[in-house]
Amino acid sequence: QKEVEQDPGPLSVPEGAIVSLNCTYSNSAFQYFMWYRQYSRKGPELLMYTYSSGNKEDGRFTAQVDKSSKYISLFIRDSQPSDSATYLCAMSGGSYIPTFGRGTSLIVHP
Amino acid sequence: GAGVSQSPRYKVAKRGQDVALRCDPISGHVSLFWYQQALGQGPEFLTYFQNEAQLDKSGLPSDRFFAERPEGSVSTLKIQRTQQEDSAVYLCASSLNMNTEAFFGQGTRLTVV
């Protein structure tokens, strides 16, 4: 079992929908949590960076961390076709080295 | 430049050939990471530098893989005697310091034929 589990999808939603993306993890030392967006043939682009448990909001994006359940989420409100991409969760702790999930492919159709 | 720059963007190598991949991190960033990303998978850690010191190379898949960052800035990932299974995208990321946001380059897509 991998340290970070993420459903690869694809997740297909209509434009305007609220999208929920999730990861679970097993390493309780993880304290820093990140979400990246990766378009085809591009490098990962950092969307959200959070420390420990709680919520963080940035525009249409909300990141949630529940350390007690070892579960993190990214919500996208009013999804747009331009949000179609692969979303990667990543986390780090004592080793300072981000460990990634395999990514969830999101398709937002008009 | 403002971001992490990697070169070349694409590299085709014949099996057995040596290749060198370059990473220019964001100026002033202390930490530098190399990752390997196979098709449909998330990035897998290869090695980590803090300034010029290689603090972790536990992810390097074999002794054919070697990385350096001699002056604490530009880094090079070298793969000797390339094999087909080395075909992947090689990503470089840098961060200001430990446990701060890591920013990625566009990657180098290596195809071994």
Structure in words:
The complex is a heterodimer of chains A (110) and B (113). Chain A has no helices and 11 strands. In chain A, strands 2, 4, 5, 9, 10 and 11 form a 6-stranded mixed β-sheet that branches. The model of chain A has no long low-confidence stretch (mean pLDDT 94). Chain A has 110 residues and is an all-beta fold. Helices cover 0% and strands 55% of the residues of chain A. Chain B contains no helices and 11 strands. In chain B, the strands form 2 sheets. In chain B, strands 2, 4, 5, 6, 9, 10 and 11 form a 7-stranded mixed β-sheet that branches. A 4-stranded antiparallel β-sheet of chain B has the order 1-3-8-7, with no helix packed on it. Chain B starts with a strand and ends with a strand. Chain B is mainly beta and 113 residues long. The chains are: A mainly beta (110), B mainly beta (113). The interface between A and B is medium-sized, with 26 and 25 residues.
